[in-house]
Specification:
Layout: E1 6-11, E2 14-19, E3 22-29, H1 32-47
Antiparallel strand pairs: 1-2, 2-3
Length: 63
């Protein structure tokens, strides 16, 4: 299993980010660590089917 990637930035006193595969679900934290924990929680919820209508991101293999 490959680790999910994420995009993040600092916005004032908060760190904001989203999973690259699920950009519709941004989150934030007061520290980078808290942001990563929140992103992991979102990933687990989506993987367990707890988030309805989660759009997925995939790579199309060219043959």
């Amino acid at each position: 299993m490959k680790n999910p990637t994420y995009t993040y930035w600092q916005d004032g006193d908060f760190w904001v980010g989203y999973l690259d595969e699920y950009p519709d679900f941004p989150t934030q934290g007061q520290t980078e660590r808290e942001l990563r924990e929140n992103l992991l929680d979102i990933y687990k919820d989506i993987a367990n089917g707890l988030v309805p209508n989660a759009r997925r991101h995939a790579e199309l293999e060219l043959v």
